[in-house]
Amino acid sequence: MVLTFLRALFILLMAAIAWSYLHSSDQLQADFTWLALAIAISGATLLICVDILSPRQKLAIFSGIFFGLIVGVAFSYALSFVVRLLVDRYMHEPEAGSPPIAVQQWKQIHDVTLRYIDLGLGISCCYLAISFILQTKDDFRFVIPYVEFSKQTKGARPILVDTSVLIDGRILDIAQTGILESQLLVPQFVLDELHTIADNGDKFNRVRGRLGLDVLNKLQNSTEVDAKLYDASGGEDTAGVDEKLITLAKSINARVLTNDFNLNKVAQLRGVRVINLNALANAMKAVVKVGEKMKVTIQKPGDQPGQGVGYLEDGTMVVVEQGRGFIDSEVEVTVTNTRQTAAGRMIFGRLGDRAA
User: How far, in Å, CA of 165 to CA of 83, rounded?
Assistant: First the structure.
C-alpha cells in the first residue's frame, strides 16, 4: 500500500513539474503541452517498471523513507553540477551584440530549464532511493562502512510460527517447559488466515480456527516464551501464506515452525531451516527396547495373517503377531523389533514371553 501510494505520487509530481515548466517558459508553444506531459509521465512510469522488476526485499517503512530522502537529496545535489554543465553546453548563450531582449529571454529559459531539471532529478532520486530501501533486506548496508540496519531479535534466530502449529496446539505445552529461548514471531498474514478459518461456515474448520486463536492468545500471555505478532506488510498480496512465510524467513534469517509436510519440503529446497513439530514429537517418544514388556489393546487386524494392531497413548502403532484373536482385549506384549518410518515409530511384538 505504501509503495503504491509512493509510485502514484511520483507520477503526479513528475507531471506537475512538466506542466509548471511549460507555463514558466515563453519559448514553448501550446501545441507541445500534452506531448511534454506525456514524455514526463512515460519517463516516470518507466522508472517505476524498472523498480518493480528489481528483485529486492523490504526494510522498515519509516526508517526507509527517512534515509531514502537523505540519500536521494545527496545524489540529486551531486548530479545538479552535471546538469548545469550539460545545460550550459547545449543551450548556447546569445552572441555578443545580440538584442537585450534576446539575452533576457535566453537567461529566463536557461534558469527555468535548469531549475525544473534539478527538481525532476531530485524527485526521481528520492523516489528511487526510498523505493530501493523499502524493498531491500533487513540486513541492508549502506556504502558508508560500519553502518548496518537490521532488526534486533531475542535469541540466536527467531522462529516463524505457521498456522498449522497454532491449530495443532502442542506448541503451547512445549513453550510452557521453558525450552524455547528464541523469539516466536506470528506474521500478520498467519493471523489473518486464522481469522478466515475461524469465520468459516464449516463447523470443523471454525473450531480449529478458534483453537488456533486461543493458543496464540495464551502464547502471548505466557511468561515462559517471547511470542509476538510480526507486521510483515508490504509483500505481494497475491502470494500464498506458505510463500510469504518462506520469503519472510529468508528476509529476517528466521526458522519456520510447522506441521505442514509440503511447506517443510519447499522451505528446505529454498534454503530455509524448518522445525517440524511432528518430527520433534517422534524424537521425544520413549525408546522401546527388544525384550521389554508392555500392555496394549488390540483394536483391529493387521495386514498379515494372524496379526493384530494396537496403539499406545502417544499414537505409536504396535503390531502383535498372533494377536488377531484378541481384538478389543488388552494383552501383554513382548517387543521383538522397532522400526522408524516417515509416519512415525512402529513396534513389533509377540504375545506373552515369546520374544525369540
Answer: 58
